[in-house]
Write a structure and sequence with these properties.
The protein has about 600 residues and is of the alpha/beta class. The protein folds into 3 domains: about 5-235, Aminohydrolase, N-terminal nucleophile (Ntn) domain (Glutamine Phosphoribosylpyrophosphate, subunit 1, domain 1, 4-Layer Sandwich); about 245-445, Rossmann fold (3-Layer(aba) Sandwich); about 450-595, 3-Layer(aba) Sandwich (Rossmann fold). About 35% of the residues lie in helices and about 25% in strands. The protein contains 19 helices and 27 strands. An 8-stranded antiparallel β-sheet has the order 3-2-4-1-10-9-11-15, covered by helices on one side. Strands 5-6-7-8-12-13-14 form a 7-stranded antiparallel β-sheet, covered by helices on one side. Helix 8 runs antiparallel to helix 15 (about 425-445). It is globular. It starts with a strand and ends in an 18-residue tail after the last helix. The structure holds fructose -6-phosphate (F6R). Fructose -6-phosphate (F6R) binds near residues 399 and 400.
Length: about 600
């Protein structure tokens, strides 16, 4: 996602800013920009595309100056254009600002405070620049604090004003910011990677804090302008570790990102009072939505398993017959679709060749096609021309984790959006949304069990086969858990619906062939319990994911991982996490290359 770099000191800052942006490239972005105060005015250059495009544009420009800010943008509000790239300027170019996060009430702010201001972009960020300008009376820090008092949303921001030429003001709420401390200079970044080549002494801003930075001094305040004292910390990470934010692997970082990335997926996309979701990218009127008679979800791998979980929501909430198809199969069948069939292509990368080809096939046959995609501007996002970004942020580990949970969440919101036009009442919709909003907190409580799950993984590291079992909505979870284990540990594993065990696979079970069963308290709990007992009777070792408080499960399990209760349709959002952690810790225990498993690629652009 977006990245911020800033510098205040005595050195020429352009190379520092451009190199800093390059350190942030791993986050993913689609445009970049820089603003430096030189010769009494802001020199601002922005470009769509890679940082090299920005660097090319800067060639031949004299952009001297020792104070500046820079940004990489991952489009959210407004398309990928130069005008929408940061830094943004206020009306008379006396103030420039770069921002990560989302200003939720930017429309209200425009109406209430910014009549007469001239806007040059479609972004929420530009509103922030004008809002600070409107509050400016000679003290940039005070203007920032006063402006932010009106803002709802998340931000990590850096801002400069021409009247205070040697100063950057930075503020944080929900979007990280770090200040690197040098000798007569300060570096600012949305993480430590842009500054690690220069200093390892850093100060992390907390939510609700504002930093006023000049070459000789860093002063910290609350948003209410009370002074704050912060400690300088010493960072021992190298560059790669910095991108991992202290986690040993990208995969673990991304597993731990999930509470936050889920919030990003949901933000601004529901109305609690009305119990409804509104994902604008569908581009359909309520009347057109009522015409849809069938839904087809097309995807590969983990995205396919997210689709399988979404099917339950579409059928239960939206009353729509829903098929989920492996894209590489769909494209070579003779699929029956028409203009009343709504087809979603689900893809993290947005580049998967099979999913793309399947969507083209569906479109050719007259279906309405939309994307559920993570990477902004990717081919599937562009070709479908409609749909929704899942906002999981860059996913760098080959094995997908946070993209899966965000895909499931978006499918739930779509199902609710359709359901509210049919038999789902506002009260039912609200109950679902309330439960959904509790999920990030519940995810955190599961992530706290990482060490406990590590011990379980280490206990079973000698096993060469695993069987994952689930029923109903937990069956796709079992499939996803099995895929995670096999792709990063190379251990053979299978996933079955619990009821299928006795129709064949039970013959494989033995004390050396453990089962991993999802036995949370939903409508199929008793059935699943019987299936676990069948496996146990064949001396198979049993690991269970069960609902907190259900102590009775200990009688039939060797190991139990408890998860908080939630609504059945939301269970994949929680129950998948212990399986991701189990696979991860098993891979580490076996010495596997967790982030780059053999034979696999992150983006599968070939058939
Ligand atoms: C598994 C995994 C793959 C992808 C699949 C589809 O961890 O990452 O199974 O889910 O290759 O990729 P996308 O979602 O990019 O279309």
């Amino acid at each position: 996602m977006c990245g911020i770099v800033g510098y205040v000191g005595k050195k020429q800052c352009l190379p520092i800013l451009i190199n800093g942006l390059r350190r942030l490239e791993y986050r993913g972005y689609d445009s970049a920009g820089v603003a430096i105060l030189s010769d009494g005015k802001f020199n601002r250059t922005r470009a769509v595309g890679k940082i090299d495009c920005l660097a090319d544009k800067l060639k031949g420009q004299t952009m001297s100056g020792t104070v500046g800010i820079a940004h990489t943008r991952w489009a959210t509000h407004g398309g990928v254009t130069e005008a929408n790239a940061h830094p943004h300027a206020a009306c008379d170019d006396n103030l420039v600002l770069a921002h990560n996060g989302i200003i939720e009430n930017y429309r209200e702010l425009k109406e209430k405070f910014l009549q007469g201001h001239e806007f040059k972009s479609e972004t929420d960020t530009e509103v922030l620049a004008h809002l600070i300008e409107a509050h400016y009376k000679g003290d940039l820090r005070l203007a920032v604090e006063q402006a932010l008092a009106h803002v709802h949303g998340t931000y990590g921001l850096v801002v400069m004003h021409m009247n205070e030429p040697e100063k950057i003001v930075a503020a944080r709420m929900g979007s990280p910011l770090v200040v690197g401390v040098g000798d007569g200079e300060y570096y600012i970044g949305s993480d430590t990677s842009p500054m690690l080549a220069h200093t390892k002494q850093v100060i992390f801003l907390d939510d609700g804090e504002v930093a006023e930075i000049t070459p000789d001094q860093l002063k910290m305040f609350t948003l209410q302008d009370e002074k704050v004292t912060k400690c300088v910390e010493n960072i021992e990470w190298d560059d790669e570790q910095a991108q991992k934010q202290g986690f040993p692997h990208f995969m673990l970082k991304e597993i731990f990102d999930q509470p936050r990335s889920l919030e990003d997926a949901l933000r601004g996309r529901y109305d609690l009072a009305e119990g409804e979701a509104h994902l604008g990218g569908l581009n359909m009127t309520p009347e057109q939505m009522r015409q849809v008679k069938r839904v087809v979800l097309l995807a590969c791998g983990t995205a396919y398993y997210a689709g399988l979980a979404g099917k339950y929501a579409f059928e239960r909430l939206a009353d729509l017959p829903t098929e989920v198809d492996v894209a590489s199969e769909f494209r070579y069948r003779d699929p029956i679709v028409d203009d009343r069939t709504l087809v979603f292509g689900i893809s993290q990368s947005g580049e998967t060749a099979d999913t793309l080809a399947a969507l083209r096939e569906a479109k050719r046959k007259g279906a309405q096609v939309r994307g559920i995609v993570n990477v902004i501007g990717s081919t599937i996002a562009r070709e479908t021309g409609g749909g929704t970004y899942i906002h999981a942020g860059p996913e760098l580990a080959v094995a997908s984790s946070k993209a899966y949970t965000n895909m499931v969440a978006i499918l739930l919101l779509y199902a609710l959006q359709f359901g509210r036009l049919k038999r789902v009442s506002a009260a039912t919709g609200k109950r679902l949304l309330d439960a959904l909003l509790e999920i990030p907190g519940k995810m955190k409580s599961i992530l706290e069990k990482s060490d406990e799950i590590k011990k379980i993984a280490e206990k079973y590291q000698g096993a060469r086969d695993f069987m994952f079992l689930g029923r109903g909505i937990n069956y796709p979870v079992a499939l996803e858990g099995s895929l995670k284990l096999k792709e990063i540990t190379y251990i053979h594993s299978e996933a079955y619906p619990g009821g299928e065990l006795k129709h064949g696979p039970i013959s494989m079970l033995s004390p050396e062939f453990p089962i991993f069963a999802l036995m949370t308290q939903n409508q199929l709990y008793d059935k699943m319990r019987s299936n676990v007992q069948e496996a146990r009777a064949r001396q198979a070792k049993v690991i269970l994911v069960a609902t907190e408080g259900d102590e009775s499960v200990k009688e039939i399990a060797d190991d139990v991982i408890f998860v908080p209760p939630t609504m059945e349709l939301l269970e994949p959002l929680l129950n998948t996490l212990p399986l991701q952690l189990f696979a991860y810790h098993m891979a580490v225990a076996l010495g596997c290359d967790v982030d780059r498993p053999r034979n696999l690629a992150k983006s599968v652009t070939v058939e």
